[in-house]
Amino acid sequence: MMTTTNSRIGRRMLVALVAVFAMVATLISLPVNLAVAETDKLTVTLTRTDDLGSEIREGDRLTFRITYKNNTDSALTAFPRESNLSDVVPGDTKNCRWVNLAAGATKQCNFAFHIATAKDAQAGTFTPMSTWDATTDRDGNNVLQAGIQANADPVTVIPVPDPLETPHDYAIGEIVHLATPGSGGFPCHRIPALTQAVNGNIIAAWDGRPRGCGDAPTPNSIVYRISKDNGRSWSKIATAMEGHPAPGLEKYGYSDPSLVVDRETGDIFLFAVKSFQQGIAGSRLGVNHEDKNVIQAAVTKSSDNGETWETPKIITEQVTGDVATWRARFASSGEGIQLRYGEHKGRLLQQYAIFKQGVRGLFNHSVYSDDHGETWHAGALTAAYGDENKVVELSDGTLMMNSRTGAAGGHRYVSYSEDQGETWGPWKVENQLEDPVNNASIIRAYPNAPEGSLRAKVLLFSNAKSTNRRANGHVRISYDDGKTWNEGRQFYAGSMAYSTLTPLADGTYGLLFESDEYQNIDYMKIDAEWLGLIDPGEATPEPTVEPSVEATVVTVNGTQIPDISVTPVVNVAVNDGATV
Fold it and tell me: Does residue 117 contact residue 125 with C-beta atoms inside 8 Å?
């Protein structure tokens, strides 16, 4: 009897224990089930759509399809928080954010792509990645679920030899494509800058733009090539200032390069805009380095002829003359100068344009250094309605600013400084120089010419010679400090935009420009023969008294008019009507 009773009790205890264990198992599994449900609000997948296979080459373009499914019973937004692909996150030229994705709906985006970079090839692989949030709003602020990963398999990336590394004897006037879409892993290349280092290296720099051709605040990088043999070959594309295409406030980029060489020390300065959340027009007032809505002025330096570059330094406060009213600033891309004459011989100048708080139009000014780039100072502003501008030192030491403007009816503005860039006179419309509101370049043809010499008066000017279209690239000559200009010679017939000239040590000139609707960064070497440039010689004209002859002048009725002199004037035509 006892045996039977004990047996029943044992069975009951066993059943009870099983029930307890089942309850515990249920409790233990409950959070796991909730977590799974949480990760299922939105499903995102990333699929390759190109046919390049698992092994690609530097410069190849990978394409992707992003598929998202709303697993909830109400609409939500599939918000792309971060990706190493282009045209995915908000701020790209296109993006794959899907607003109001209906309950249970599945949608696709086919914008995403990646161009394999030199950095990918150096690493050997590239892994496509994206991070998503499910949100209730389009701006990604009200997050239902964060950190949803959608990645694809790694791809092997093989480096490709750059044909420009092989020396070639290019003809004068022959175009060399330094960058085309995809070069260096960038779909777009814009904003050329050009100079020659004291050792002869030719340095060509520009924006490498990773998300289409967008200006700041796109996370652009400043990239460059170097030629060590006077343009016969060029190094691979390298990076001087690297943008960071991260999400949100971590994103930053560099744009609009300009190069300035200190020929006394050999240092090269590279100026650029640094942007975070705002472009030029949207920048807030202030100079706070930590304010992501203030556009910053950046500069880096090379002390080895452009081979390597220091970490960029922010000089916003130094280049902002009035913190209370100067709202935004940017360096004019291309090349600055070092003064050859006068009290401040050796002064470095980089041109800037700024917006003033509550005032329409851009204002120009010079930023200068008298201590070889240790510190920089902001000169006074021009009148309104300037823009990207260049400066040239004339034969008597006067500085002439030549500026883009939208206020001169398809022509250039000029202004003069008598104090080596610290202040500027009023604007004058230069009706001889057509311009379609575009960046241009002006240089001395003979940069080492003695002060006051005929050679010091010779200037070269490059731009799109048109009043309304960025096309028809020309280089024009002045023999008289910019008072008159010849018609020039065309270097590119079709679409071209920004251009920059620099004199080379062998007496030729380097010309870097954008062509074919911002498709290419092109280099060309030109010389005096190509230009039709007549060398006026080394002579420095002696000061002369204007010749006059005495004459007796009478009226028709015979009355003598006293104190009259006649002064003969002779104009000598030199090359397309310019006079000396």
Answer: no
For the record, the structure tokens of 339 come out as: 């003064």
For residues 521 and 500, give the distance between their C-alpha atoms in angstroms, rounded to a whole number: 11
**Residue range 42-157, CATH number:** 2.60.40.10
Contact, 512 vs 204, CB < 8 A?
A: yes
pTM for this prediction: 0.81
**61 contact partners, CB below 8 Å, separation of at least 6:** 50, 113, 114, 115, 116, 182
> How far is 9 from 4, CA to CA, in rounded Å?
9
The closest of 41, 100, 99, 101 to 72, measured between CA atoms, is 41
Q: What is the CB neighbour count within 10 angstroms for residue 548?
A: 10
| pLDDT, tens digit only, all 580 positions of the chain | 344 444 444 555 544 444 544 444 443 433 333 333 345 899 999 999 999 999 999 989 999 999 999 999 999 999 999 999 999 998 788 999 999 999 999 999 999 999 998 889 989 999 999 999 999 999 999 999 999 999 999 999 999 899 999 999 999 999 999 999 999 999 999 999 999 999 999 999 999 999 889 999 999 999 999 999 999 999 999 999 999 987 677 899 999 999 999 999 999 999 999 999 999 999 999 999 999 999 999 999 999 999 999 999 999 999 999 999 999 999 999 999 999 999 999 999 999 999 999 999 999 999 999 999 999 999 999 999 999 999 999 999 999 999 999 999 999 999 999 999 999 999 999 999 999 999 999 999 999 999 999 999 999 999 999 999 999 999 999 999 999 999 999 999 999 999 999 999 999 999 999 999 999 999 999 999 999 999 999 888 766 555 555 556 556 566 665 555 555 554 544 445 444 4
Q: Among the residues of 118-168, which ranges form H helices? A: 118-123
CATH, domain range 161-530: 2.120.10.10
**Would you please indicate which residues are annotated as catalytic (active-site) residues?**
215, 388, 498
Residues 6+ apart with CB under 8 A from 511: 194, 462, 475, 491, 499, 500, 501, 523, 524, 525, 526
